[in-house]
Amino acid sequence: MTAIGMLLSIAVYSTAAGSVVVDRVVAVVNEDIITMSDLQREESLKKGGIKMDERLLLEDMIDRKLQMAAAKRAGMDVTDKELADALTDIMKRNSLDAGQLEAALAKEGLTLEQYKTELREQMTLSRMFNKNVRSGISVDEAEVRAYYERNSKAYTLPEEIRVRQIYFRMPENATKSEAAAVSDKAQAAYARAVKGEDFVRLVRELSESENAAQGGDLGFMQRQDVLPEIEEAARTLTPGGIAGPLQCAGGFHIIRLEEVRTPLMPLEKVREEIMNALYQQKLENTYRSWLQTLRSDSHIENRL
């Protein structure tokens, strides 16, 4: 063990009101140390009543020390003036004077000097992150399109069907003979359709729907938006199949299933979402790679 290693392994003793408190070293980061009291203080500041994994918390503290040391080597640590300016800005944005700030910090168990130390660290870490991670990251259109195609299932919309119909209207308060006459017309039309007559021509000749002149095309509809009787019949068909007569919605319907599709949400609507996802993914990967480089170039002992 090196001389510094022996020195850092020695427990620290202090007395208060006749008691002895032992504070041991839990990590060595190059020439720096992290003690149990450092770790416990970090945990008390962050946990918010939630039990935290001390090992993960310690690893985070090690990473921060590595970044702070790298900032110092690169001459990127925050100056006293920059810190003072940031503190002034914080007080201004929160409408606080110096006394009010200290009182607010005291409620959180912090002194002004402790807060300055943490603020300096946050500013330095942010500066290092922007330079070494964020600055080199971009997402181009080709990446967005490739992600969209690879993850198409995530952007799938509900299945839609497209049908044409021949419609025979049932008169309101129809008599038995009137209802029978409408039913007979529908049966006759269905027989002609299944024998192979041109369905669009039959629509234009026989249908009483408003869109008969346009071939009775109802367009694409999500299944939950289709009349239940038509949707159920369509489930038994393949494109080109005919079903009927179906009595619903004030009359008889003869339908032909034209197409079934499972559409995707347009790329234009999800482009920003995908760009953000890719950017965050790159950010995380680059950050982890950078941290690994810092770790590989350093002496680290985790003694927890």
Structure description:
The chain has 304 residues and is α+β, with helices and mostly antiparallel strands. It has a domain at 157-261: Chitinase A, domain 3 (Roll). The chain is 51% helix and 18% strand. It has eleven helices and nine strands. The chain has helices at 3-8, 36-46, 54-73, 80-93, 98-107, 112-132, 141-150, 176-194, 199-206, 228-234, 267-296, and strands spanning 12-16, 19-23, 25-29, 32-35, 160-169, 217-222, 242-248, 251-261, 300-302. The strands form three sheets. A four-stranded antiparallel β-sheet has the order 6-5-8-7. Strands 4-3-9 form a three-stranded antiparallel β-sheet. A hairpin with a 2-residue loop joins strand 1 (12-16) and strand 2. It is elongated and about 100 Å long.
Can you summarize this structure?
This protein is of the alpha+beta class and 304 residues long. Helix content is 51%, strand content 18%.
Which labels suit this protein?
single chain, 304 residues, alpha+beta, Chitinase A, domain 3, four-stranded antiparallel sheet, three-stranded antiparallel sheet, elongated, disordered N terminus
